[in-house]
């Protein structure tokens, strides 16, 4: 869980939950009772990469803090002053030693538990894997072998699998997690079939 801010960064006064009128109506947020500073709590941008080699395999890695058998995509925080594209190339190089030679955006997903928004890319790489100290194990898998998980980066992986002409298979990322994908996120629906959207009539 992300940490909650407790003090005003402008005057160090303890923040309080206070309601104020905003564009969307009355909204309660952490605010400073002394100088009126507001903590918006905006999500942090996190970059993720579906890393593919010249053999058409995807790289999955295990973080040193994860239990044995749990593998995921290469991810990292975007840094100030860099574009998402430059950031994901940097992260892939820092975490795996691989150099990106082509990339395309897959999409963006929320990670509410950590108050993050995930921006995912499909990257083609060259070189040999040299893991950073944050990662302890890796594996290359084909689109047929890989199992996606029902959360942000898992949906990015599912997009990559489907781009190979294969229907993604889902499973739990951790024990106790539901293995079923969120029906609002997978399978993909045309706008006309998604109740969340109104499609304008053709002109």
UniProtKB/TrEMBL annotation:
Instruction: Tell me which SUPFAM superfamilies the record gives.
Output: Nudix
What PROSITE patterns does this protein's entry cite?
A: NUDIX, NUDIX_BOX
Cofactor(s) named in the record: Mg(2+)
Q: Which segments constitute the Nudix hydrolase domain?
A: 41-163
Q: Which InterPro entries match?
A: NAD-cap_RNA_hydrolase_NudC, NUDIX_hydrolase-like_dom_sf, NUDIX_hydrolase_CS, NUDIX_hydrolase_dom
UniProt keyword annotations, A-Z:
Hydrolase, Magnesium, Metal-binding
Q: Does the keyword Transmembrane apply?
A: no
Protein's name according to its UniProt entry:
NUDIX domain-containing protein
The species this protein belongs to is Comamonas jiangduensis
Question: What taxonomic ancestry is recorded?
Answer: Bacteria, Pseudomonadati, Pseudomonadota, Betaproteobacteria, Burkholderiales
């Amino acid at each position: 869980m992300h940490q909650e801010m407790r003090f005003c960064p402008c005057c160090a006064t303890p923040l309080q939950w206070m309601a104020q009128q905003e564009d969307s109506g009355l909204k309660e947020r952490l605010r400073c009772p002394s100088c009126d500073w507001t903590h918006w709590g905006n999500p942090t941008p996190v970059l993720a990469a579906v890393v593919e080699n010249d053999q058409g395999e995807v790289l999955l890695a295990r973080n040193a803090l994860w239990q044995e058998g749990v593998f995921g995509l290469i991810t990292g925080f975007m840094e100030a002053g860099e574009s998402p594209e430059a950031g994901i190339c940097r992260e892939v190089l820092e975490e795996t030693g691989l150099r990106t030679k082509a990339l395309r955006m897959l999409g963006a997903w929320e990670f509410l538990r950590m108050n993050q928004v995930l921006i995912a890319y499909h990257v083609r790489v060259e070189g040999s894997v040299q893991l950073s100290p944050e990662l302890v194990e890796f594996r290359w898998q084909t689109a047929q072998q890989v199992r996606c998980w029902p959360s942000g980066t898992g949906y990015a992986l599912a997009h990559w699998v489907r781009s190979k002409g294969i229907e993604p298979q889902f499973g739990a990322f951790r024990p106790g997690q539901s293995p079923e994908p969120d029906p609002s996120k997978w399978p993909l629906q045309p706008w006309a079939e998604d109740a969340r959207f109104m499609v304008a009539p053709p002109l």
